[in-house]
């Protein structure tokens, strides 16, 4: 064994095998195939069974959905490839450790707490999705669009059991998360494709015009939902994973990549998952909307429920139930893994496995409450808006610190616990654009990019000013 490999083994032992506070060594880097499976599995997954139908409840037109999703997902792929992956392979650090070097330990602790909790809520919504499938054989009442609380003991037991299994898989580390995604993703992709084909047959689609007419020129949104236009679809689909790409959360994933070109593998998730799977799931809901039950609810001024398990079961039976369960897992697994890394930055003495179990427990509790899944479009928009501007700090420092003469990783260099340049940049950008969104009723995703850009610019300005002092 060479001295280099002995040092690597020592690093791995200290970091628990996940290199939370050290750069990933060369011998642990992974090929693009590892990321392909993970992104295809993670994004052709549980959220897709919810988001596709929710677009229908927002009254989108055919053009807005088909063209808007294509453009928005392209922008997301480009963000991953040229921002996230590019920076990840240069530093090979987790988001949390990288941000700590820039912001200081005290400031990043609050960010990590918010990030971890929001990840847990997202994972919880995916546990909810899986529960709608597992509950079918038990004749479990399904949650409605406006439900917030658990609807019975059966629901609670099923959610807790699913959450426990998902947490144990995530606690095994990145390798297990990646392997689980590789095993499950082909099954899930096939299920989405099958669901779409069966739903087209059930809708009597025999031509492109028939397919187009499913959405047509759009409709009025369902009760309690807002109307989505072309730009709503483009911008929302771009920033649906804003915390992961422009927010730099996936630095924690791509630090294992051999090359920045691995960032292109996110296209598998965007176009298999966020395009084909969203549309297939919307078709399942379109079938349900024609049922007497759904028509009766609409006539009474109520929005028909969006329960992925029954929708998939109606199309492809037991295979659909299995697919929904697996789909929830492949989204929740890496999400809980990321949440565990966030909590470990706060509790560094705990092992990766222990903090991941903690994250899984919080996610399971969140999964008991259907509101996180049923309001997923709004929650994802808020989640990206809160976290994405912090990514701007990393991006703007990486690309502009030399030109402006700013010290890189300033908190580490100056032994700061709290970098006020980061704090002021985030508070001002977040506060200003959240006020604009609320005061003038602006769709939150529309102000995510302006907030991100302003945060990055303000960080540079404040850094230049305060570092001189």
UniProtKB/TrEMBL annotation:
<feature type="transmembrane region" description="Helical">
    <location>
        <begin position="443"/>
        <end position="462"/>
    </location>
</feature>
<dbReference type="GO" id="GO:0005886">
    <property type="term" value="C:plasma membrane"/>
</dbReference>
<feature type="transmembrane region" description="Helical">
    <location>
        <begin position="268"/>
        <end position="288"/>
    </location>
</feature>
<dbReference type="GO" id="GO:0015209">
    <property type="term" value="F:cytosine transmembrane transporter activity"/>
</dbReference>
<keyword id="KW-1133">Transmembrane helix</keyword>
<keyword id="KW-0812">Transmembrane</keyword>
<dbReference type="InterPro" id="IPR030191">
    <property type="entry name" value="CodB"/>
</dbReference>
<keyword id="KW-0472">Membrane</keyword>
<feature type="transmembrane region" description="Helical">
    <location>
        <begin position="353"/>
        <end position="373"/>
    </location>
</feature>
<feature type="transmembrane region" description="Helical">
    <location>
        <begin position="110"/>
        <end position="133"/>
    </location>
</feature>
<feature type="transmembrane region" description="Helical">
    <location>
        <begin position="311"/>
        <end position="332"/>
    </location>
</feature>
<feature type="transmembrane region" description="Helical">
    <location>
        <begin position="65"/>
        <end position="89"/>
    </location>
</feature>
<feature type="transmembrane region" description="Helical">
    <location>
        <begin position="153"/>
        <end position="171"/>
    </location>
</feature>
<feature type="transmembrane region" description="Helical">
    <location>
        <begin position="183"/>
        <end position="208"/>
    </location>
</feature>
<protein>
    <recommendedName>
        <fullName>Purine-cytosine permease</fullName>
    </recommendedName>
</protein>
<feature type="transmembrane region" description="Helical">
    <location>
        <begin position="228"/>
        <end position="247"/>
    </location>
</feature>
<feature type="transmembrane region" description="Helical">
    <location>
        <begin position="421"/>
        <end position="437"/>
    </location>
</feature>
<feature type="transmembrane region" description="Helical">
    <location>
        <begin position="379"/>
        <end position="400"/>
    </location>
</feature>
